[in-house]
Amino acid sequence: MAQTAAERKAKQRQEMLEKGFVRKDLWLSKESLETIEKYKIEHDLKSNDEALNQLLKALN
């Protein structure tokens, strides 16, 4: 049976919580978002969340 958008989103939220992630709202410049999206595409990632976390991890 097909899932609704709300069901998919709830599943994603649960998966992120299980991975230890914390939800925060952020304001980003257009340039920052373009950088994150470019990184996501170049590294074949599923989400901007993954891309941003990898970019930040690389800074350490």
Description of the molecule:
The protein is built from 3 helices and no strands. With 60 residues, the protein is mainly alpha-helical. The chain has a domain at 27-60. Helix 2 (30-42) crosses helix 3 (48-59). The chain is globular, with a radius of gyration of 13 Å.
Topology, element by element:
Blueprint: H1 5-18, H2 30-42, H3 48-59
Quickly give the structural class: mainly alpha
Q: What general outline do the C-alpha atoms trace?
A: globular
Give the tally of β-strands. 0
| Percent strand | under 5%
Radius of gyration: 13 Å
Oligomeric state: single chain
- Helix count, per DSSP? 3
Primary descriptors:
60 residues, mainly alpha, 3 helices, globular
Q: What's a quick, concise take on this entry?
A:
This protein is mainly alpha-helical and 60 residues long. The protein is 65% helix and 0% strand.
